[in-house]
Structure formats: C-alpha cells, structure tokens
C-alpha cells in the first residue's frame, strides 16, 4: 500500500484522528463545521488500522487526536487494545476539559497526556472556552498523580504570543 506509492517501509508514529467532534469551538480551529460530524472511525476500524500499521509498517506509537478524543465513545477500548494487545506507546492530545473519570479509566494504558493550552487564565478561556484553563491544569495534575507523563501544546497567534514564556513558567 503506502510503501508501493512512497517507498516508505516504516512508520514509527501514527497520528490517528478518531473524530472531528469536539466540545469546544476554539478561535484558531481549522475543522470548522466538521466539529459537528460523527466519529471518523468506529472502534473496529480504529483497532484494525492500528493492527495493520503495527504489522505492516512497524508502528511503535500512536497519538490519538480529534476533535476531542475524550468525547469518542470507544476511547477506552481503542487505548487498551493499542497498549495491551499491540504494545504501542499511546499518547492522547486533548483540551483536558472534564476528562477526570475517563482519564482515570485509561491511565494504566496511557503513556502521555498532552493538553492544549493557549495562554494563562482568561487568555486561554477566551480562545478556547470559559473554564477551560482551570480544567486543563486540573487534568494535568490528575494525570501526574495517576503516574501518566504529561505535556502541553500551544497554538501561538497574535492573541497569545506574549504568554508563551509565562505559560511555560506556570507549567
């Protein structure tokens, strides 16, 4: 498949967008109206793709993306299969909004939780959603208590460029 067209024989990291659906409408998001769409993959489709990538291309890790991966109804099943059955390193990139219960469920099978933040306090909340800053910090703290490595991402724009270093200091 891929190797015949591109010559690529090994794909170490797969970025898998499980869905477009999201519980935010961030100012910088490029998904637009797709945020309202149904899940991009069923659990079986996602699992089959992960197995195919590992078996045919030696994939070692997967980053699960959205939309918002924590609103994907079969997230636990996909994470557990990727980790327990395929032995992949599993990372999730999330907005961190109200994910505590599901995070606790999947923590044993999660290698990295990466939370998106766009600044400190009201800057982040203006760009993302009211209350999202505190929720994101809480998600990072809970993940750390559960033994999950954490990270953060920031989409830098003219609205938040002045908060890159202050946010780094907070984190």
Topology overview:
Elements: H1 2-6, E1 13-17, H2 43-57, E2 61-65, H3 75-85, E3 89-94, H4 100-106, E4 112-116, H5 122-127, H6 132-145, E5 149-153, H7 164-170
Parallel strand pairs: 1-2, 2-3, 3-4, 4-5
Helix pairs in contact: 2-3
Helicity, in percent?
A: 25-40%
What's the total helix number?
Answer: 7
Overall SS class: alpha/beta
The beta-strand count equals 5
Cα-based radius of gyration, to the nearest Å? 17 Å
- Stretches where pLDDT falls below 50 for ≥5 residues? none
Shape: globular
Mean pLDDT: 88
- Proportion of strand residues: 15-25%
The strand order across the widest sheet is 1-2-3-4-5
The main sheet comes to: 5 strands, parallel
Distance between the termini: 42 Å
- SSE run: HEHEHEHEHHEH
Overview of the molecule:
This protein is an alpha/beta fold. It contains 7 helices and 5 strands; from the N terminus they run αβαβαβαβααβα. It has helices at residues 2-6, 43-57, 75-85, 100-106, 122-127, 132-145, 164-170; strands spanning 13-17, 61-65, 89-94, 112-116, 149-153. The longest helix is centred in the N-terminal third of the chain and has 15 residues, at 43-57. The radius of gyration is 17 Å and the shape is globular.
